[in-house]
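Propose amino acids for all 126 sites.
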């Protein structure tokens, strides 16, 4: 069983930055593909970014490319999401997720992830 705990959310003005962290339990963390998703009120959960267990390789939604950076520290069992140049439309609950199937595929849909955190609220004011 894997447990994921997000932190780092908050209220920030447009143009500002936040760094989200996701701490994972489990000895096999370094093998997991990790993803960040977000969900705004009344909207479906959407893909933000993913990072593989090796290389590592990354993938981003077009809406955040060039502004957000996903990274991981396997020694700390933690994945990060650095968010710069934040916009009001980035306001959402942000979730981290883990895919433990070790296929090396950077999935962009929620059903391909096996474990989820409880989420952290990010609010960007205009």
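Proposal:
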């Amino acid at each position: 069983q894997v447990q994921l705990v997000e932190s780092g959310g908050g209220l920030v003005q447009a143009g500002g930055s936040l760094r989200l962290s996701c701490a994972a339990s489990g000895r096999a963390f370094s093998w997991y593909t990790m993803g960040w998703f977000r969900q705004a009120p009344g909207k479906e959960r959407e893909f933000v970014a993913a990072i593989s267990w090796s290389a590592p390789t990354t993938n981003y939604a077009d809406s955040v490319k060039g502004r957000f950076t996903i990274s991981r520290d396997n020694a700390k069992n933690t994945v990060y999401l650095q968010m710069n140049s934040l916009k009001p439309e980035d306001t959402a609950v942000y979730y981290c997720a883990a895919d433990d199937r070790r296929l090396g595929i950077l999935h962009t849909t929620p059903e391909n992830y096996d474990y989820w955190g409880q989420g952290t609220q990010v609010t960007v004011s205009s």
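The two ends are 40 Å apart (CA to CA). DSSP finds no helices and eleven strands in the chain.
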